[in-house]
Amino acid sequence: MDHILLGYVFSREVWSIFLGKLHLDSSIMVHQENFFSWWLHTRKQVSKVARRGRGFDSLAFLIGWMIWKEWNERIFGGPSTPPAQLPVKIVDEGLRYVASR
After folding, report:
1. How far apart are CA 64 and CA 85, in angstroms?
2. How many whole angstroms separate alpha carbon 1 and alpha carbon 57?
3. Residues 40-47: contacts with CB within 8 Å, 24+ apart?
């Protein structure tokens, strides 16, 4: 799991896009780590006000889920999405989820 979410070059590109938009560029991992340890370290760099509620952590799990789905598509011969386009799919998925509540 850690390799797919953090060690996979595609994953690092996707995280880089999102973390860059959140001004967390320094959190982009260079070497493989445990996903949960990395996320706990990363979230400490965000103000308590910004991570209030479940939205900030939900974003991490949504990104991870979409990376996992993309990895499965690639492994099992489905269509692949370029790293720059996956964030668009992630935002769309998040908006669909919020709208369905």
Report:
1. 15
2. 18
3. 46/22
CA distance 39 to 35: 6
What type of residue is 62?
L
| 12/16 Cα distance (integer angstroms) | 6
Question: Can you give the pTM of this predicted structure?
Answer: 0.80
pLDDT digits (tens, 9 = 90+) for 3-15: 888 888 888 889 8
- 81 CB-near residues (< 8 Å, 6+ apart): 70, 73, 89
Distances (CA, A) of 58 to 37, 46, 75: 16, 14, 26
pLDDT tens sequence across 80-98: 888 889 989 998 998 898 8
